[in-house]
Amino acid sequence: MLEPLHTCNLACLGCSPERYNGELKDRLPLGECLKAIDESGAPVVSICGGEPTIYPELTELIEGTIARKRHIYLCTNGILLDRFFAKNTPTSGFRSTSISTAPPRRTISSSIVREFSRRRSR
After folding, report:
1. Does residue 8 have a pLDDT over 80?
2. Residue 2 in domain
3. Domain that holds residue 42
4. Residue 68 in domain
5. Considering the entire predicted model, what is its pTM?
6. Total tally of structural domains belonging to the chain
7. Residue 46, in any domain of the structure
8. Model pLDDT for residues 27-38, shown as the tens digit of each residue
9. Does 4 reside within a domain?
10. CA distances, 40 to each of 29, 35, 113, 114, 122 (Å)
11. pLDDT tens, residue by residue, 32-88
């Protein structure tokens, strides 16, 4: 599990405060993230946080992970996915996103999953 930042756009009940109270300026530099991936040797990298779609170097992190022939499991609350994909186009090796279903309100989760599923099926 790689946590490049401890900054989040939510404060979910099921998440510990140290995972969302961090400052963006305190994030791990991209080089340190890629070094951790190299050192771990893990075939799957779970990119968590905080909220990974807030990480400014997320596209580069995804591409660097794929270049290392690792699979990616992106753990996100999904709220910022549209913003992320509108500004970024990770390489075609990026295949899965895990959307948390435990945000502060259940209605948020249901609408995100429904909308993301609709867009992916186009």
Report:
1. yes
2. no
3. 17-120
4. yes
5. 0.75
6. 1
7. yes
8. 999 999 999 999
9. no
10. 17, 9, 31, 35, 36
11. 999 999 999 999 999 988 899 999 999 899 999 989 999 888 888 888 888 877 777
